[in-house]
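Reminder to self: tokens first, then the designed residues, so the page reads top to bottom the way the pipeline ran.
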């Protein structure tokens, strides 16, 4: 089963899971076009770890126009909704049964605020990451395990 269309339900699904959600102005209209279908969630870290990492995710960087992911997970476990359209988070690659180099149009991207060296994850952030991703997967009709 897959979800067709943009995930305008992200805030509701995360809140229903009991998670703190911050809705950025314009998130319902932000993205690089419409999803083809949504097959899953692709989890990342920001490689920064600062309180303003969300700005790069929303606005992009010199070599890549934002938004870079639909969601940012803060160190306190709060979820920022940046966009619901397609975002540039997946890059090049493949997965069995999926189109090659096209996962941006099939996955919801999450950027968790972290340096990425394993030293700065907070317990509340990790718990929120698991609960939020599981809730999104259930909404997509996929196994949350």
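Designed residues (145 positions):
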């Amino acid at each position: 089963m897959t979800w067709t269309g943009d995930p305008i339900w992200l805030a509701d699904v995360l809140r229903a899971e009991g998670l703190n959600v911050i809705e950025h102005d314009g998130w319902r209209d932000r993205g690089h076009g419409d999803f083809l279908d949504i097959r899953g969630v692709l989890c990342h870290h920001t490689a920064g770890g600062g309180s303003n990492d969300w700005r790069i995710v929303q606005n992009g960087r010199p070599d890549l126009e934002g938004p870079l992911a639909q969601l940012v997970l803060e160190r306190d476990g709060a979820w920022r909704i940046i966009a619901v359209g397609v975002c540039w988070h997946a890059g090049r690659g493949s997965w069995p049964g999926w189109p090659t180099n096209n996962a941006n149009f099939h996955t919801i991207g999450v950027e968790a605020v972290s340096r990425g060296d394993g030293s700065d994850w907070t317990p509340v952030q990790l718990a929120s990451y698991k609960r939020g991703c599981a809730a999104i997967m259930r909404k997509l009709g996929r196994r949350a395990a």
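The longest strand covers residues 40-45.
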